[in-house]
Amino acid sequence: MAQEKWSPDLLKTPEDRAIHLAQRRAQIEPIIDDLRRLAREVAADLKERGGLEGDLPFQARARAWTTGRPMFQAVDDLEAAITHLVAFGARYERSYEELPEKRARKAAEKQRVKELKASGGAPQLEQQRSDEASQAQNGGLFDHLTKGA
Predict the structure, then answer these.
(1) Which helix H or strand E contains 134, and what residues bound it?
(2) What's CA 32's distance to the chain center, in Å?
């Protein structure tokens, strides 16, 4: 599969998504490490250069920071790319693998409740109603609290 190009069809199984993520991580992490090292060296070099003639106090430091900042942002963006790939895997699983099963369970539960109602009522619903009635009779959970006390 390493020779093939990735396509949406190849990302449908959890195993294939894990392989894809591992491959992308193996590609991106060396680049991240290299860019991070380079960004630190560039930032150190810019700080060592000092100020230019006519600079205000701390202007050289601000210029060094604003000049080097895009390198650090590139590193952050590549790290975010890995995070986004992990999030894609989790969302795909939740939305396309677990959701149909969840909907089927809900539909089965709804059908079961419908059948119980048709056969004379659900004992669970009656128990819940009796609990609510006893709570209303005995007072609510927060009835002992008074405003301002």
Answers:
(1) helix 123-138
(2) 21
Longest dimension (CA), the chain: 92
Tens-place pLDDT, residues 51-93: 778 878 888 888 888 889 999 999 999 999 999 999 999 998 9
Please tell me the distance from the alpha carbon of residue 90 to that of residue 85, in angstroms, as a whole number.
9
Using only C-alpha atoms, the chain has a radius of gyration, in whole angstroms, of: 30
DSSP state of 9: G
| C-alpha 18: how far from chain center | 17
Give pTM, 2 decimals: 0.62
Contact 74, 31 (CB under 8 A): no
Q: With 0-12 CB in 10 A as exposed, 13-18 as middle and 19+ as buried, what is 43? A: middle
